[in-house]
Specification:
The protein has 180 residues and is α/β, with parallel strands linked by helices. The strands form 2 sheets. It has a 5-stranded parallel β-sheet with strand order 4-3-2-8-7. Strands 1-6-5 form a 3-stranded parallel β-sheet, covered by helices on one side. α4 packs parallel to α5. The radius of gyration is 15 Å and the shape is globular. The two termini are 30 Å apart.
């Protein structure tokens, strides 16, 4: 599970961790999240799920299952908008709404956060600091959100994760693919 550090962007785990963090974005999803949870359980692995708040509210049983199986939770905004297309005030509402929705379903405060598409800049960092969010990005990705991506392509792009890496996967896709 990802360590808690407030007020800065975290790309990888702290030095000396000796482990790799597996993360999933855009869920929960009634079709894919249970399958992901089953695979993780079969391998005795834990992950951190960055949930879209509206989906967490729609599928609270999946959030509860994720927590019951020992996985970490973070927010990934309320609706997963195209962040570069909205005002900073709308970003604030999205980030706060996502945090509050996931926290409400989890029954506890959730402060881990990943911005949609990893879009993060000075105004958005001010929003996350104001909201007390602990922002996590990633060090490795297999581009599993790109249509037509194969298992072999994902594995090729990921390579061999090293200790300290944070690996990005998705258990849902909230927006159509946009290569920009």
């Amino acid at each position: 599970l990802l360590a808690q550090r407030v007020g800065r962007v975290n790309w990888g785990l702290p030095p000396g961790q000796g482990s790799v963090a597996i993360t999933f974005d855009d869920g929960p999803d009634p079709e894919f999240t249970p399958a992901v949870l089953d695979v993780l359980a079969r391998h005795g692995a834990v992950a951190t799920f960055f949930l879209v708040g509206s989906a967490a509210l729609e599928y609270p049983q999946l959030v509860r299952r994720t927590m019951a199986e020992g996985h970490g939770l973070g927010s990934h905004s309320l609706t997963h908008p195209e962040i570069s297309d909205i005002s900073v005030m709308e970003v604030y509402r999205e980030y706060r709404g996502g945090r509050d929705a996931v926290s409400s379903v989890a029954g506890r405060p959730v402060s881990l956060f990943r911005p949609p598409k990893g879009r993060y800049d000075v105004p958005r960092s001010a929003v996350t600091r104001r909201l007390g969010l602990q922002t996590w990005l990633w060090t490795r990705s297999g581009d599993d959100w790109v249509p037509g991506t194969t298992k072999d392509r994902i594995l090729d792009l990921l390579g061999a994760p090293a200790p300290g890496d944070v690996v990005l996967f998705h258990d849902a896709i909230r927006q159509p693919f946009d290569p920009s």
